[in-house]
Write a structure and sequence with these properties.
209 residues, mainly beta, 9-stranded antiparallel sheet
């Protein structure tokens, strides 16, 4: 896992999440990230005291604070934008919904191609391998986890990765391949996503004054 990031333009991803899902009307002030939500952390933010089997591959987006200090959830059904324009290369079922892998026309000095992965979502209608997405288009919506046996609340998982071997290997991407350093170099999504506050408070901590 690497925390390096080659030259990438900042994304309006988190601003679009707020705008598309009318979070300002709910009083949105800032995103809240509990221990275990951020890149490379090893806690399970939904189960206090437990650890992950491996370092977190990306960023989980779930909670935000209002100007009055309330904590609210992004929630199931929230629309999810693509970070950069790109092509869908893989759609994979996961334990909380589906993950969509998107290739982008950005490569590092070694020719490794940037991919973004959107986990725990319901892909938009008609989205398949080969679909083209422009900036400002939706990948899908946050999956509804009600009725599932998992205790994980609805949330969006985002991973950034440089794929070793180019687009051909990307057509066979899944979560196992992302954990293989010979196939993928993981990057910190917070570096480009402009999500604002990086809050490390516990779930029951009082709001900031």
């Amino acid at each position: 896992m690497a925390d390096e990031l080659f030259a990438l333009d900042p994304s309006e991803f988190c601003e679009l999440l707020v705008r598309w899902n009318n979070l300002a009307e709910a009083g949105f002030a800032f995103w809240e990230f509990l221990p275990g939500m951020r890149f490379a952390e090893r806690e399970t933010w939904w189960r206090a005291g437990a650890g992950r089997g491996a370092a977190h591959e990306g960023l989980d987006v779930c909670w935000f604070r209002t100007g009055g200090g309330r904590r609210l959830s992004l929630g199931a059904g929230a629309r999810v934008p693509v970070i950069y324009a790109g092509e869908v290369v893989s759609v994979v079922d996961d334990f909380l919904g589906t993950s969509v892998f998107v290739a982008h026309e950005r490569r590092d000095s070694r020719g490794r191609q940037l991919h973004t992965i959107y986990g725990h979502i319901e892909p938009r209608s008609g989205l398949v391998s080969g679909s083209l997405l422009d900036v400002g288009e939706a990948v899908g919506t946050v999956a509804d986890t009600s009725g599932r046996t998992s205790a994980v609340p609805p949330h969006l998982h985002v991973t950034l990765a440089l794929i070793v071997g180019g687009r051909l290997s990307a057509t066979r991407l899944d979560w196992a391949s992302l954990r293989d350093p010979n196939r993928a170099i993981l990057l910190n999504p917070m570096s480009i996503m402009s999500c604002g506050a990086d809050d490390r408070r516990s779930p029951d901590a009082p709001p900031r004054g």
